[in-house]
Amino acid sequence: MAYERKNFRLASSSCFLFCTLFHIFITASAAAIHFETSNETDYQSLLDIKGLIQGDPFQALSSWNDSIHFCDWRGVTCGLLHQRVTVLNMSSFYLVGSLSPSVGNLTFLRELNIQDNDFHGMIPEEVGRLFRLQYLRFANNSFEGELPLNITGCSELSILDLRGNRLIGGIRDDLSTLSKLYALSLSRNNFSGSIPPSLGNISSLQILNMSRNNLGGNIPAEIGWLSNLHVLELSSNRLLGAVSPQLYNISTLQIFSITNNLLSGQFPATVGLTLPNLTLFLADLNQFFGSIPTTLANAS
Ligand SMILES: *[C@@H]1O[C@H](CO)[C@@H](O)[C@H](O)[C@H]1NC(C)=O
Ligand SMILES: *[C@@H]1O[C@H](CO)[C@@H](O)[C@H](O)[C@H]1NC(C)=O
Ligand SMILES: *[C@@H]1O[C@H](CO)[C@@H](O)[C@H](O)[C@H]1NC(C)=O
Ligand SMILES: *[C@@H]1O[C@H](CO)[C@@H](O)[C@H](O)[C@H]1NC(C)=O
Ligand SMILES: *[C@@H]1O[C@H](CO)[C@@H](O)[C@H](O)[C@H]1NC(C)=O
Ligand SMILES: *[C@@H]1O[C@H](CO)[C@@H](O)[C@H](O)[C@H]1NC(C)=O
Ligand SMILES: *[C@@H]1O[C@H](CO)[C@@H](O)[C@H](O)[C@H]1NC(C)=O
Ligand SMILES: *[C@@H]1O[C@H](CO)[C@@H](O)[C@H](O)[C@H]1NC(C)=O
Ligand SMILES: *[C@@H]1O[C@H](CO)[C@@H](O)[C@H](O)[C@H]1NC(C)=O
Fold first, then answer.
1. Contact 30, 82 (CB under 8 A)
2. DSSP bridge partners of 289
3. Could you tell me which of 22, 183, 138 has the C-alpha nearest to residue 148?
4. Burial class, 151, CB count within 10 angstroms (exposed 0-12 / middle 13-18 / buried 19+)
5. How many domains does the chain have?
6. Cβ < 6 A, ligand 7 pocket
7. Which residues of the chain have pLDDT under 70?
8. Ligand 3 centre from 153 Cα, in Å?
9. What pLDDT, on a 0 to 100 scale, did the predictor assign at position 299?
């Protein structure tokens, strides 16, 4: 390289045009090499994903073969410009298997939807390399183990839907760094521990669904900071104690469900005024006392 540069300098006065063209050629071929390795990576990643599928009763992946380009495989969508995979939608393919860590190499992914299949095993840590991912939909599978530590790498996430799996362990407080979350849906798993107060910092959150887990402790008052929340669904856990008045103060709430916990105390008299848009208020199977606030009639 040094040798070439020296030659350029010697010749530079006499071949401005040549040098410019040569530079364009070098830049273009570097781009082509990069381009090729990148789309080959996506191709290889998809093959790795297919390779860990043990059951495909309806041949949902039969088009995943070399007779057509991988961008035309069923469920695969590529960006027009670079032919990189931007959407992988394998929902309801009835697949049985585990999810290949190679999924983390599909770095152009914006949407990863594998809901309604039978994926088991752990959610690979490599998912956290998908820094462009906006929609992660893994609902209705059999994923086990804990939330991947690395999930916070998916900093663009808008929907994190892990409903209906077999996930265990705590809900880590660093989930609050996913500052663009619109929906956090973790219901029907076996998460334990308590709800981290830091979730109150995800101001974009509109749906928080943690029903049917094994969560204990108090509902943090900080959840009341979620001023855009439409759905608060915490039913069927082991949540304890009084509900902070701030929770009855999220005026945007439409669904408020705390059914089937160990919650106690009284409902504030003003609840129907502070929650004007309520469509569902479910609080049965707890240890509340006192009367039902007449202001609920105002939540028309
Ligand atoms: C990657 O792109 C190059 C250049 O367009 C093309 O020749 C090659 O077939 C592509 N590879 C795959 C697996 O699509
Ligand atoms: C490969 O995919 C094409 C396109 O979907 C399909 O027509 C063909 O049957 C597939 N081949 C095999 C061996 O599955
Ligand atoms: C975890 O995420 C970081 C940053 O997003 C990434 O560099 C690292 O490779 C990931 N780890 C694994 C095991 O994928
Ligand atoms: C999951 O399964 C349930 C029950 O079979 C079903 O009602 C639901 O639509 C499925 N999909 C999602 C995304 O939860
Ligand atoms: C919460 O998730 C469960 C599935 O796990 C679903 O049935 C329920 O409709 C969800 N609640 C809301 C309010 O979206
Ligand atoms: C959920 O986890 C608890 C321990 O935290 C365990 O005792 C229980 O059996 C688990 N339930 C299911 C359905 O896996
Ligand atoms: C919310 O974020 C602020 C600013 O980053 C931080 O100081 C505070 O501790 C966070 N609150 C919780 C409950 O995590
Ligand atoms: C509820 O909200 C109102 C107005 O936004 C505020 O004045 C009041 O202090 C809040 N109450 C609680 C308990 O957070
Ligand atoms: C209640 O719903 C109406 C109609 O959708 C909406 O215009 C209004 O902003 C909502 N109020 C609050 C406090 O979210």
1. no
2. none
3. 138
4. buried
5. 1
6. 176, 197-198, 200-201, 222
7. 1-37
8. 7
9. 82
How much is the pLDDT for 80?
87
The domain of 130 spans 2-298
Report the distance separating Cα 153 and Cα 123, nearest Å.
Answer: 14
**Residue 274 CB less than 6 A away from ligand 1:** no
For residue 82, the model assigns a pLDDT of 86
Distance CA 92, CA 97 (A): 14
3-state helix, strand, coil in the chain (%, to 5): 30, 20, 45
Q: Looking at ligand 6, which residue's alpha carbon is closest to its atom 1?
A: 190
| Rounded distance from Cα 243 to ligand 9 centre (Å) | 24
Query: Which residues, 6 or more positions from 158, have their beta carbon under 8 angstroms from its beta carbon?
Result: 134, 135, 180, 181, 182, 183
pLDDT at 298: 85
Is pTM beyond 0.85 here? yes
Ligand 8 probe mutation, 223, 244, 249, 274, most atoms within 8 A of CB: 249
Please give the number of the atom of ligand 2 that sits closest to the Cα of 74: 5
Ligand 5 close to Cβ of residue 164 (< 6 A): yes
- CA-nearest of 39, 152, 51 to 97 is 51
CA of 254 to the centre of ligand 9 (A): 9
Q: Are 277 and 253 in contact (CB under 8 A)?
A: yes
> If you take atom 7 of ligand 3, which residue's CA is the nearest one?
129
- Which residue ranges have their beta carbon within 6 Å of ligand 8? 245-246, 249
- Supply the CATH number for residue 100's domain: 3.80.10.10
